[in-house]
Design goal:
The chain is α/β, with parallel strands linked by helices. Helices cover 38% and strands 20% of the residues. Strands 1-2-4-5-6-7-8-9 form an eight-stranded mixed β-barrel.
Length: 248
């Protein structure tokens, strides 16, 4: 058995235990400076190997199919966290990452919608965050799942905006509520290139989408996000991912 297969078996066994858990990185509104949401990031603390690199964990999970069980576990934990925030009077949203592989199950969107409605979380309080590797717009089954989730009050976020993979004019064909600009795009945005990036932000907002700047690590990065007209920001400058769910 290969090391990857070993890890896949161990990850499958860890899904229902304390080895797998979420850490939360808050997002702030660039208008008010207040926390408005937090992204949940899955972590795996292996009892023998220690902290498993998140990219390695996701690769193992996707290749083995364990991603479906991991996704259900994370959704359940995030909805529990959301309920805790509501009990404390916190109106934050929670964003949970989903893999394109999860959409291979036709029941995926239905399960998410049912769990969301059973918890009575409220429209806009749950965000499914997709990487830029979403299936092409021609895959009607996936678009139908996303559209159904949007109709049921679940928001859809797309990462990788500004990298050139998704043209601004394609936004109208995707049932999105938010796009996220990666940290490296923010950090590498030279003054002469910011005009084009700002136009992309304006196009997204014209389609009714929220724009989040990721990877904000310095005040300079924050200034760039403000200059671009982004709505929200997250990154180490604001707060590192933390298992604690009560933010100041």
């Amino acid at each position: 058995m290969s090391p990857t297969e070993d890890l896949a078996d161990e990850l499958a066994a860890a899904v229902d235990g304390p080895e797998l858990f979420a850490v939360y990185q808050p997002q702030v509104s660039l208008e008010s400076g207040s926390i408005v949401a937090a992204e949940a990031l899955c972590r795996w603390q292996h009892p023998r190997l220690g902290d498993i690199d998140p990219l390695t964990m996701i690769e193992v999970a996707e290749r083995s199919g364990v991603i479906h069980a991991v996704g259900r576990r994370m959704l359940d934990e995030c909805l529990d966290t959301l309920a805790g925030w509501r009990a404390m009077g916190r109106g934050w949203a929670v964003a949970v990452n989903v893999s394109p592989v999860q959409f291979e199950h036709e029941s995926f969107a239905g399960h998410v919608a049912a769990q969301f409605e059973d918890r009575a979380a409220g429209p806009g309080s749950l965000v499914l965050e997709l990487s830029h590797d979403i299936p092409p717009a021609g895959e009607r089954a996936v678009l139908a799942q996303l559209a159904m989730l949007r109709e049921r009050g679940v928001e859809i976020s797309l990462g990788g905006y500004g990298e050139g993979r998704i043209a601004p004019e394609q936004l109208a064909r995707l049932p999105l509520s938010e796009v996220k600009i990666p940290g490296h795009v923010i950090r590498d945005a030279q003054p002469d290139a910011r005009a084009a990036l700002r136009k992309g932000v304006q196009v997204a907002q014209a389609h009714g989408l929220r724009v989040v700047a990721e990877g904000i690590e310095t005040l300079t990065h924050l200034d760039i996000a403000v200059e671009l007209g982004c709505d929200r920001a997250q990154g180490f400058l604001i707060r590192h991912p933390d298992p604690e769910i009560v933010f100041p």
